[in-house]
Fold this sequence. Notes:
Layout: E1 12-15, H1 30-33, H2 35-39, E2 75-76, H3 85-89, E3 102-108, E4 117-121, H4 129-139, E5 148-151, E6 168-172, H5 211-223, E7 235-241, E8 248-253, H6 261-268, E9 281-284, E10 306-310, H7 351-356, E11 409-410, E12 431-436, E13 439-444, E14 462-470, E15 482-483, E16 489-493, E17 496-501, E18 506-510, E19 517-522, E20 528-533, E21 544-549, E22 555-559, E23 568-573, E24 581-586, E25 592-597, E26 602-608, E27 614-620, E28 623-631, E29 634-641, E30 644-648, E31 662-667, E32 673-677, E33 682-687, E34 693-699, E35 707-712, E36 717-722, E37 727-732, E38 738-745, E39 753-758, E40 768-772, E41 777-780, E42 787-790, E43 797-802, E44 808-813, E45 817-822, E46 828-833, E47 838-843, E48 849-854, E49 858-863, E50 869-874, E51 880-885, E52 891-896, E53 900-907, E54 912-920, E55 926-931, E56 937-942, E57 947-951, E58 956-957, E59 992-997, E60 1003-1008, E61 1012-1017, E62 1028-1031, E63 1037-1042, E64 1048-1053, E65 1058-1066
Region (Disordered): 1-101, 336-404
GO cellular component, one term: cytoskeleton
Protein name: Echinoderm microtubule-associated protein-like 2 isoform X2
Amino acid sequence: MGERRGKVQKGVRFFIPSDLPGGDPGGKAPENNSLHIARVEHPPYIPPILPPSKPAYPESRQTVTTNNLNSESDFSDDDDDLTTARSVLDSRQPLNQPRRARRVTFYRNGDPHWKGVNFAINNKRIRNMEALLILLSEKIPLPYGVRHVYTLGGKRLTDLTELEHGKSYVCASGEMVKGVDYGRKTERYWHNRKPTAGKRRGENYLYKEDPVDRLSIDSRQSMMSDQLSPRSKPRVITIISNTHRDSRGKILLNPRTSQNFEDILKDMTGAIKMTNPPIEALYTFSTEQKVQGFGQLFREFRDCDIFIACGSESLKRGPPSSEGYKSDAPAHAQYDHTQPIKQSTRKTQTPQKQQMSGSSSDSGEDSLTPPPPSQAYRSRRRSVQSNATQTDIEADPKPLDDFADNSIDTLAVQDSDDPYVTSPVASEDDVVRMAIHGRRQTFFRPTSYDKTYVNPGSRPNKKLKLEWVYGYRGYDARDNLCVLPSGELMYFVATVVVMYNPRKETQRHYIGHTEDIQCMSHHPSEQYVATGQMAGQLPDAHAHIRVWDHVTLNTLAVIGLETFQNGICCLGFSKQNHGNYLMAVDEGDNHVLSVWDWQADKIVAKTKTHPDTVVLGAFHPHEDSILITAGKQHMYFWKMVGGKILRDKKSGVFEGEKPKFITGMEFSATGDVITGDSSGNILVWSRDDSNIFNLQHAIMRAHEKSVFTLRMLSDGTLLSGGGVDRKLVAWDSLRGYIPAKAERQLSEANGGIRTIVEQNAGQADGLLYLATSNNLIIQGSLQTKFTTVIQGHSEELWALAVHPHEHAFLTAGYDNHVCLWSSATHKLLWRVSVEKPCLSATFSPNGALAVVGTTVGLFVALNAYDGSLVASFQVGTEQLDAIRFSPDGSLLAMGSHDNTIYLFSVLDDGRTFRKAALLKGHKNFLTHIDWSSDGRYLQSVDGDYELLFWKVDENRRENPAVTRDVTWHTQTCILGYNVLGIWPARENGIDINTVSRSESGDLLAVGDSQGFLKLYRYPSTQKKAQSHQWKMCSSNVTNVKFLYDDGYLLTTGGMDAALMQWAVQVTEGINRNRAKRY
Length: 1078
């Protein structure tokens, strides 16, 4: 989301209780949350809002540092008194400036009723612009204080010399509200006589009411009754964050504001913690009704004091009651927009019939009332929406009148002239309707459906067990690879910690986390591991740390639930006290450094580090009371004394310009701290007799740009790994860090070096494991060639296809790589590169051909045996989201982002493709396609959640009732009668991305937008069907596929292109009847 600009004025004011401590409990960095903060050059200190019930970190202190100020101590404590900005600004100034005062008037931004404040500006009292802003903030109340001064014409002033005597100016926190007559509103004179004084008796008729005029006035007042009364008083409301329900703030609303509703919502954003700022919608807390405009807060919702604030995400509704969720308004009443209504060709119906009739997916053309806006398809594939008919929509599901909470009801079908709405062959028990993302869906039950079949809403008699994780997360992680005493490689992917044995080629997995893992640390005893996870999108998905035993995989401690904010930057065990302490830096605004007694689950000490990004943190190996943190333009040394963490301001001082980022850190055997930075320099910090760490050695331009990782070997050799130059360089620390004349450069395909570890620590064989930014782990040394140990995709992974009769599957990603894997050996069989990013793939029925669709409308046909190119064809300019061969292999169907299905004839054993037909009828881009078993029909779903059916040989849409008994060769479409049960009764913003039916027809795998993998019975036709579920990642599960023999399930997804293989296992004691295939 781009930068959102808003206005600040009297309409919104934040209440900050004086008893709340400082420290922002959550949210993103201030520049992402509020433009007013991001654009201020010298902002006054504003205490952030904290929930009263949450423990707070020590209050943040704002200091002003100048050349005239000297530190009074070596360490800074959070309890020191503030050095205020005003005391510094009033200090020494030149005395030769003119003393003549200029009288000016200042008005409040956006408030035409503010009388103004007169100031005499002279050099003795106010010496610079910053001092003026501080004084104005005391006199003129604004939500964020006075941060800018504008002329009445809108020009922002930057210097006192621009103020002119006798002129007027506007004070604002952000941008100036234009079009307001500042200073034009004045108080009326008082009258001390009756209004009737001086009235002549002969003119009484002039003062009598005309009954006709009275009627017209009453009529006008009746018509305007819904408008906001000018006498409405200001009111205070409480807003609660949709994503962090423990974050709330109080807002003062002024009914006379000149701001629009959108700008008011943006100004509210700073009061709460949000995952997707700024605020875009408000809902009442009790009834969950959407607030459509500012006036509703003073009319319909004047009795509601608590509201839920949503960003770009949908409303996360509360748990359903025993009686079910009931809508407070008609389904479409909450959509306050106007659409042109096309003339319908159907017969005029009674209101009852209009409610009962419907098609497989009602649209604006088929309905007499405008439908709600449609749901954009997930966060799919970073593509730009087509300009055809796509509209911005709201992801929140809206119950439809009598079909609240997505309840599934069977209804009688009424007569209609629209062939796509009803069918004369359908009876009362044949039609099922439900609402999915605000769209009314109508599905037809197969005539052969057996009602005596095993309960389709129960959990299946099979479960999934994670067997193998392909790839590695290296594109954004560091120090996430280590070698265990058993020789296993330990690293993490998505929510899973992998322990891979290279000799036995086996894997073990720790699956205790519920969100993506961000960092890890190995205990000095080499038996325990600490891993930290990020905060998820669901309210109960908190960032926290888990300490566990890598031998038994048992969890020993869970640390920091509801303490950490967005995630964990870095972790580290202490060394001298045998790892009793664990340090962590969270990803909140203040990047709080905390030290934990992890066995007792209590905080020993904590402090705020730096508002900018913190990349690294660790205990000093020789002294547990010393800690180091580093990141964007800073490197801080800390001393832990008496339950407090104090900063050593004399240590870590750079000579000259600071690097933009400190990107790597290591320790020498003598206790020196070695750092690498984004400029390619390696710096060595040594401690002197005064226990101050000073710069001792500097290796300038050791690498081109960033030094991502450093590793000190047991023989005193320092290894450094570069990101851009991909070089591995050795330095002799025993001889003043001179080059050791040993250097290797990795290929561009490997990527930059992220982590370096010794394969056999303490031995002189020199064998290393390198983890790279392209998600590879390679093995070798400075003298030998590096070979690949672990490999995977390095960018988003959406395309997945399984071989029709082999234990093999194909993946294709945004990294332009197409890979064929063996599910039996977990090895890569071949990998080829194509010209453009890929997002769809399929095998021909005989398994000889693999076809891949790209983001530019090009599809590529490859030989499935070796990956060699067979043919390629440019279909259009839009990406190909879905691709599928017909069961006999004679046709290839492709769903494009231009809302069209392209059909190609397959000739010469796949060496020739000829365009056969175009199927048009969708109003949004295609997402899923399925063929019927006889190849005569297609079913397709688009990003607007519309399910359509097609008669292929006639190139036209087919009546949904006609296809009710069609047997589908595959089931990847997320809509249909047989997949009704996968849609939750209340969707809570969760979207279904992908489904796959097993070959035996008894299981249905589902992946959603929250990273959940679910396993249902098939068919799943019962409301609120039960399932087995696993948390695979923190973002989209992009694809799921069963192997041809149903022995395994393959899944893709996550920010790190996770690829996982799950074994399908039969559970005991459950009915094992198989389902029919429909």
